[in-house]
Write a sequence for this structure.
């Protein structure tokens, strides 16, 4: 079945460092891909999304490109801030069911001042 | 964006008792809500789809008699964990869709002792 695999955390970086969180997926057809973020004490929030191959989602300095050839959707940010500390989830919705979300296991990111 | 409120955020209960978790859409109507469960260091797993005015649809392997779902209005869905046992201890999250985007509650940490 469809699945999402993302790098295990926790990831700890210094402020202004470059961030990459890897995400790969397995799915039939053309799923939509998402990154969600969960800040401490809050619910999951949509960070960015891409709905077709080669699309780039971006928000708050974060970017991810939908790569069908490598079935990947890696999250990147050029210069992280302490406020980016959170748990990040990669996810997909299958092409057959737009309301069903399949999540990766989440990556906890901590940024040191 | 739309707001989904989940209550309580944490609950500790004795083995054998039942616990009710509420999920409310605060500024929109949700005919469908979703309940997820997350074990430590694992993905959020969809448990069931809650449909307003009708029976919930459960994912394979989820006991419908143990996890009772009621969606009596367009803004409220409840999940009741009946006769809870320590293995039911987990993080439960609800979501609802507005304008094709999923919005999540803050989650409920259930600990059964």
């Amino acid at each position: 079945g469809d699945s999402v695999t993302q790098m295990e955390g926790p990831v700890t970086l210094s402020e202004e460092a470059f961030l990459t969180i890897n995400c790969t997926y397995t799915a039939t057809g053309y799923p939509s891909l998402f990154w969600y973020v969960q800040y401490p004490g809050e619910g999951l929030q949509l960070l960015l999304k891409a709905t077709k191959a080669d699309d780039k989602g971006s928000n708050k300095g974060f970017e991810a490109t939908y790569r069908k050839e490598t079935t990947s959707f890696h999250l990147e940010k050029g210069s992280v801030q302490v406020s980016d500390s959170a748990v990040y989830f990669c996810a997909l919705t299958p092409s057959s069911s737009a309301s069903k979300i399949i999540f990766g296991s989440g990556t906890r990111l901590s940024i040191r001042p | 964006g739309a707001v989904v409120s989940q209550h309580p955020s944490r609950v500790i209960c004795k083995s054998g008792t039942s616990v009710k978790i509420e999920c409310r859409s605060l500024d929109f109507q949700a005919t469908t809500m979703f309940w997820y469960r997350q074990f430590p260091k694992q993905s959020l797993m969809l448990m069931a789809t809650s449909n307003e005015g009708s029976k919930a649809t459960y994912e394979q392997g989820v006991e419908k008699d143990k996890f009772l779902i009621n969606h009596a209005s367009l803004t409220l869905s409840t999940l009741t964990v009946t006769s809870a046992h320590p293995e039911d201890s987990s993080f439960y999250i609800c979501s609802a869709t507005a304008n094709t985007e999923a919005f999540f509650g803050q989650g409920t940490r259930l600990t059964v002792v």
Summary: Chain B touches chain A at residues 1, 4, 6, 9, 32, 34, 36, 41-46, 49, 93, 95, 97, 100-107 (CB under 8 Å). The mean pLDDT of chain B is 92. Residues 1 and 45 of chain B are 24 Å apart (CA to CA).
